[in-house]
Amino acid sequence: MFLVFSALSTALVVSFCAYVASILIPFLRRPTQPPGDAADFDWHIFVPCRDEEAVIETTMGRLRETFPDAHVWVIDDDSDDATGRLVAERTVCDPHVHLVQRRRPDARTGKGDALNAAYAALDEYLPADTDRSAVIVCVVDADGELAPNALAQVAGRDVFADPKVGAAQITVWMKNRNDRNPLPHRGRFVNLCARYLIRMQDIEFRTMIAAMQSLRERTRTVGLGGNGQFTRLSTLDEIEHRYGEPWHGSLLEDYELGVHVLLAGYENRHVHDTHVSQEALVNFRRFTTQRTRWSQGNIQCARYIKDIVMSRHFDNVGVLESSYYLVLPFIQVVGFITWIFLLAATVVGFAQVPDAAGHWLVANWAALPMLLVFGIGPFFIWGPIYRRQCEPDRPFWAGILWGIGMWLFVFYLYVSLSRAFFRVITGRNGWAKTRRNAEMHSIGVVAKEA
């Protein structure tokens, strides 16, 4: 049994290292994407909200100032706070701001349903003779900050200027990555931990996730995210015609939409030369809650593997990449169980045989560098890459520390995956709204489990 688990462990490590190499090379070689003319399209920005009074005024003002020709559609998902009132007040003096008001029992049924409500409102708002292929819908979180060049970049010849492109996703940055005191009412150690968590999220999105998207550019399987997601309205129309509505019930409704775009015969693009900034979470409990939801959504989307395999719009490489991503939570659980078994068996073996640990080290010392390379290297490498590409003014040793931190950071997966599979097994599929950092000291319940 020990040999079986050892062989399985080796296979998992080798396959993962091969995957890291396959995303790293296209990421480092990615070309610059030329901008286009944003005036060639009509822009409508959807902002789903649930208890967002802490940030929504700032977000509306920033979007309207940065993109004066764009329309902002705020979906209030029956907030308990003043979100709806604040948006309604803005609509009185600004015709480019629209409130989509949802009420229970129809509200709080998921982010996808909220976005579908905005889609219906936009459909009613637009004239019948609108060229819907020239209308672009963007989804931004309530605390999101689109870079000033965002619309121009996604209007480029490689993105929406290409009629084959149905959707695009831009890179995500953490806007509080340089906050030295993210928790002003707490001590130094707590703030150190918060700064670490913030920085790791920034590294994750700007290197690891962006690199995955670079590979997907090659395989034509780019995924969409929940923040900084752009979709052509005519593509949403096609998805509604085929599947009943644009967004669906998965807890990873953004990636699900991207799959539907591809199944409908359109292409997705990832745009790394612009970004949307969002607030990184500073509390590990809220962070794991968020990632549990994402993991569970990934598990739910595994049901699309059959459709992907059977689709004529996915080639062999695209099927392989998409299927690997969708089964990854299951592979990670198998790996977790395998390594727990091997660790336990090794500890028991050392305990039963005197000096066994010393003899093992003498006999296998040459394997230790390999352990570092294959066990830590695939995570560590993103620290130096991040320093070079994103923080070139930081010293060399900062990249080393960030690399070590990234290796430790990924252990959160075992927490979020365990919770996600438990929720799947127990039939819990509710949408928990993640509390903003500005709501840390709010009175009353903010984040709710639907």
From TrEMBL:
Protein name in the entry: Multidrug transporter
Keywords: Glycosyltransferase, Membrane, Transferase, Transmembrane, Transmembrane helix
One Pfam family here: Glyco_tranf_2_3
Transmembrane segments: 324-350, 362-383, 395-415
Protein's organism: Microbacterium mangrovi
Compartment(s) where it occurs, according to its Swiss-Prot or TrEMBL record: Membrane
Chief localisation class: membrane
Signal peptide extent: none
Membrane topology per record: Multi-pass membrane protein
GO molecular function, one term: glycosyltransferase activity
This protein's GO CC annotations: membrane
